[in-house]
């Protein structure tokens, strides 16, 4: 019998594959005293923000629930945005590309704060002289 054939079941039924995988995982975790239950998933907290970019803008969506807009502070630099919501730690968001100093806006609707940052369209390139070290 081939080594690989001994590892995998001989059937193509999805139920058989799932049962084989569950048995395999149970055996793997048996020595570590960690029960494996594929039905139980670790609870992952809701993400603090959703970031997506287009050709000209970076959009950030943050759930603000019922916080009054006057109490929320939004700041940004060329490479990072920061949002302070009362009674929560500051959310610092690294930006995927540099943004321009002008053209940023923020709007809220249905408990979601949308921040729109304009990308820096001016790309500059400089040639650096190379000095010889003697």
Question: Could you explain the architecture of this structure?
Answer:
The chain is an alpha+beta fold and 134 residues long. The protein has two domains: 7-40, no CATH class; 50-118, Immunoglobulin-like, CATH 2.60.40.790. It is 16% helix and 27% strand. It is built from two helices and seven strands, in the order H-H-E-E-E-E-E-E-E. It has helices spanning 3-7, 14-30, and strands at residues 50-53, 57-63, 73-76, 80-84, 91-94, 105-109, 112-118. The strands form two sheets. It has a four-stranded antiparallel beta sheet with strand order 1-2-7-6, with no helix packed on it. It has a three-stranded antiparallel beta sheet with strand order 3-4-5, with no helix packed on it. A hairpin with a 2-residue loop joins strand 6 (105-109) and strand 7 (112-118). The longest helix has 17 residues, at 14-30. The N and C termini lie far apart (68 Å). The relative contact order is 0.14.
């Amino acid at each position: 019998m081939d080594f690989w054939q001994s590892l995998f079941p001989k059937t193509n039924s999805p139920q058989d594959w799932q049962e084989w995988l569950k048995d395999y995982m149970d055996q793997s975790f048996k020595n570590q005293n960690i029960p494996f239950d594929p039905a139980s998933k670790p609870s992952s907290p809701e993400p603090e923000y959703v970031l997506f970019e287009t050709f000209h803008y970076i959009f950030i969506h943050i759930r603000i629930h019922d916080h009054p807009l006057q109490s929320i502070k939004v700041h940004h630099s060329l490479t990072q945005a920061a949002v302070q919501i009362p009674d929560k730690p500051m959310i610092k968001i690294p930006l995927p590309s540099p943004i321009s100093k002008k053209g940023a806006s923020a709007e809220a609707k249905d408990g979601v704060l949308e921040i729109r940052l304009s990308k820096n369209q001016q790309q500059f390139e400089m040639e650096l002289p190379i000095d010889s070290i003697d």
